[in-house]
């Protein structure tokens, strides 16, 4: 039951951070995403009744048993274990994703049409 819930959270949100409120690494990742202006979903494992089950399911799914556990565009980016999640990698990944999406928009979509691609959505600032 926990794995399908985690997979649903990941598939229905452009950026997901599985976190714990007291974890300094989680705080750093969330601050970085906020500074980038990203719209992201945070699932605080220590405040949810099924948090330990979700964390165990994430461990089986991704091989990462610690937090933060970050997904961007449905892809597992990692956490803060050694060599996993580098903040620079997140920035570069998001920027490259945006550039590629903008290029595809320019290449394939006529100027009069709207093209809603996930990277632009995930990096939009939330409405005031």
Automatic annotation (TrEMBL):
SUPFAM superfamilies linked: Thioredoxin-like (SSF52833)
PROSITE patterns per record: GLUTAREDOXIN_1 (PS00195), GLUTAREDOXIN_2 (PS51354)
Transmembrane segments: 88-108
GO cellular component: cytoplasm
Domain of life (superkingdom): Eukaryota
UniProt GO BP: cellular response to oxidative stress
CDD domains: GRX_GRXh_1_2_like
Entry similarity comment: Belongs to the glutaredoxin family. CPYC subfamily.
Its biological purpose: Has a glutathione-disulfide oxidoreductase activity in the presence of NADPH and glutathione reductase. Reduces low molecular weight disulfides and proteins.
UniProt name for this protein: Glutaredoxin domain-containing protein
Organism (species): Dipteronia sinensis
């Amino acid at each position: 039951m926990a794995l399908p819930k985690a997979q649903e959270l990941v598939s229905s949100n452009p950026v997901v951070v599985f976190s714990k409120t007291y974890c300094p690494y989680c705080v750093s990742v969330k601050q970085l995403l906020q500074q980038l202006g990203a719209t992201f979903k945070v699932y605080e494992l220590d405040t949810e009744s099924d948090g330990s089950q979700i964390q165990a399911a994430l461990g089986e799914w991704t091989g990462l048993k610690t937090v933060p556990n970050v997904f961007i565009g449905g892809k597992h980016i990692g956490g803060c274990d050694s060599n996993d999640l580098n903040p620079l990698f997140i920035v570069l990944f998001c920027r490259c994703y945006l550039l590629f999406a903008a290029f595809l928009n320019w290449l394939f979509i006529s100027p009069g049409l709207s093209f809603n691609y996930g990277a632009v959505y995930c990096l939009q600032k939330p409405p005031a």
